[in-house]
Amino acid sequence: MKRGDKWLILVLVVTSVSLYLAYSLKMMHAAKYEGKTFARIELNGELYKKVELTAEPHEIEIVTDRGYDLLRISNYGIEVVESDCPEKICMSYGFIDKVGEMIICLPNRMVVEIVGDSGSSPAPEFDYLSY
């Protein structure tokens, strides 16, 4: 193994660990949110509906000229349970319930984001920043 190969491996490892830590910190912060949460549903980049996430199960049907999606709200979260898009990637996101998490269905141009009371994801809080 050459010296350049070792540097490349080192850079890849450091990058991977940094991305993992950033994602973990984001999820830890999202788990701390204590207010009401809402699902902000957008179609074609426009707000379609903002729905409070409750424990009581109910469903939302979305029918557009691009396709069909069925969303289920339960246990203070949301998931796509049925979609007519070709690969059904939006269904693979599963159940989301933390502020900042998203479900995206590109063929149907639908975005579902969990937001807090203010309508947007809260900015991260830092105790100390060093340069």
Characterise this structure.
This protein is of the alpha+beta class. The chain has two helices and seven strands. The protein has helices at residues 3-31, 89-92; strands at 38-43, 46-52, 58-63, 68-74, 77-83, 102-105, 110-115. The chain is extended.
Secondary structure: number of strands? 7
Write down the overall geometry.
Answer: extended
Mean pLDDT: 84
Which percent bin holds the helix content? 25-40%
Largest sheet, in brief, is: 4 strands, antiparallel
Q: What are the segments in which pLDDT stays under 50 over at least 5 consecutive residues? A: 120-128
Backbone CA Rg: 19 Å
SSE string, helices as H and strands as E: HEEEEEHEE
Secondary structural class = alpha+beta
User: In DSSP terms, counting alpha (H) and pi (I) runs of 4 or more, how many helices?
Assistant: 2
Distance between the termini: 35 Å
